[in-house]
Amino acid sequence: MSKISYLEAINKIQSLTINSTTKKVFLSKSLGKILACDIKAHADSPAYPTAAMDGYAINLQNNETTTEYELIDYSPAGSIVSSEVGKTTCIKTFTGSLMPSGSDTLVPIENVELKENKVYIKQKVPCGFAVMKVGENYTKDEILIPKGTKIDFAEIGVMASLNIVFVEVYESPKIAICATGSEILDLGEEKQNESQIRSSNHLTIEALATKYGCDTLQLGLIKDDKESILKAFENGLNSSDILVTTGGVSVGDFDFVKDIVIDKLGATVVFKGVEIKPGQHVIVAQVGNKFICSLPGFAYSSTVCFILFCLPIIFAFRGNYEKLNVVKAIAKTSYKNNTTKTVFTASNLNFADSHYEVDTFNKKSGTSAILTNLLGNNALVIVEPNSSYNVGDVLDIIVL
Hints:
Layout: H1 6-14, E1 22-26, E2 39-40, E3 50-51, E4 55-58, E5 68-75, E6 89-93, E7 105-108, E8 112-115, E9 118-121, E10 131-132, E11 143-145, H2 153-161, E12 166-170, E13 175-180, E14 184-185, E15 197-198, H3 201-211, E16 216-222, H4 226-239, E17 242-246, H5 257-264, E18 268-272, E19 276-277, E20 283-287, E21 290-295, H6 299-317, E22 326-331, E23 335-336, E24 342-352, E25 355-359, E26 378-383, E27 388-389, E28 394-399
Helix pairs in contact: 1-6, 3-6, 4-5
């Protein structure tokens, strides 16, 4: 199976059949989840004319010249008064209270002078002042929050005002993660020789999956042994929706992952090998409604490949309402891509004068193992095959 282009790989992912499932969660637990239904208003809000501040409710439309009123009652928030406002009478009304019958205007407290039981208007206001009209917030059956919205604080507040206790959201896939390689060490393990290296992939991938709202299963580190790898992969698939592996996908003598995924697990290969840098050796495969994403072993490569290929699959499980954050940015440094691959270059991201800017100042060049290039406020600049960009050019970037 020959390598395909980045665009072809994305198109293959987008054409996958992935069954989304939903569940109901407590409103307070819905932050960051994807809404699975439209949220509609079940009534007008406010349902009645309502005071927008503290003041005195009067009838101004039928008596525009009067500046002296008799105070006949009080209307605290949460109560309803039976008294009615007349031409020369008023009712003290508080923020959030229903406007008393007969009134059409609220005169703020600071605009009046109160002497005994008389209210004298020192500064007039127009008719209808400080009165929330019926339906000012929203009207009955209006769609307030559309299906597919990522729930944030404002959405929670609006749903709380609608007395929504449980909200239906898309379920996120569960992600099982492991890193393969006899040379890698876990946290706390002591080196036995200088060829061993500390693994970061399994924890970086777990952090990314968690950041994007997924539950994770950490399988840890697996030595380059076919039986151990197969057993770990089977356990991961049985316990998750997406199995993400790193290492063992290249062409070395001990790169067993590709053979196990293809030959032992009965997976249908979506693609194997993509013309990108970093991470050309990547496999995406499907087993029923479950997926395997086998990524390269180098830290920068595996991280970028997770963003490019695993996140779109995660989004598909949640109804395909999310996308990578691709925006335009102005180049502050230049770059030349002399390869036939699409290159994703780690770049510093800044926002200045109403636009994004990117540069590669202080970014290190070398292998695809330089994970430190992703520290700070970063983006991936998308550089097409055999192309270059210069200072001032407008680029497509993936905001991280």
